[in-house]
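Researcher: Hi, I'm a grad student and pretty new to this. My advisor asked me to get structures for two proteins we've been looking at. I'm not sure of the right format, so I'll just paste the first sequence and hope you can take it from there.
Model: That works fine. Here's the first sequence with its structure tokens right after it:
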Amino acid sequence: MTSARGSLFVVSAPSGAGKTTLIRQALPDLGAVQFSVSATTRPRRPGEQEGVDYFFVGRETFEAMTARDEFLEWAQVHGNYYGTPAAPVRAALEAGADVMLDIDVQGAAQVRARMPESVQILVAPPSFEVLRARLEGR
């Protein structure tokens, strides 16, 4: 007897729109949905934890992973690389787990092309002014 394949939920938005906050608030109520941790070359922000918020890697490591096609999606945003390691996502889906991604709109387009069965959720910021204030506050 094989288990059913899990579902992939892609939550995307421009940087600063609030997708990470929404996901963190929703995950406890979503039961067994697994959160996919992305890799990035950007410096760690205060309070962020390795393997929880991101996998913090060097530029050379990220570029080598890209060359080996190890990302489900990746993009360069504001001078830093961000990407979703493919192997853990695929393994979780094959095991029947539902997985949620927190990625930007560029990455969501790549995932949609590779996995059209994914459920795509776009988060819009409340207003341009709020988005600007959030980004300037980082």
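Researcher: Oh nice, that was easy. Here's the second one.
Model: And its structure:
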Amino acid sequence: QKDRAMRLQKATQCALFAVLELARDPQVQISAADIAGTFGISVNHLAKVLRDLARARLVESMRGAGGGYRFVGNPKRVTLYDVVSLFEDIDSHDGAFPETGKDADIGRALNRVSMEIENITVSTLKSITLTTLLKNMDRV
């Protein structure tokens, strides 16, 4: 059986690639085209993601010759949750299973488990900083 990772939207994947690439060396400016080429993603899609990351004050757009994007967050404090939550609704606790009718107890049990999984996911994402992830990348 293949290991399966959590399914993330394409925008979230692009954001994580971009943020980690830029956070490797916050002094360096990298164009959206270079980031997209490195990871094989659409420049147009990445540009939209970078705008969202700029609104969240994680990256900054540098104009002019040699312009591009650079990371402006604190990699020791920015967590995976900070990036992922911009694009994913990961802690909604919306109760996906019905809790009425003859199978209400099953619905409640499934919703409790679902909420527990979401809480574990959020806690894990909040516990991993970009610095930690970048250090782990260096070891691989």
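Researcher: Is there anything I should tell my advisor about the second?
Model: You could mention this: The helical segments are 10-23, 32-39, 43-55, 80-84, 104-127, 130-139.
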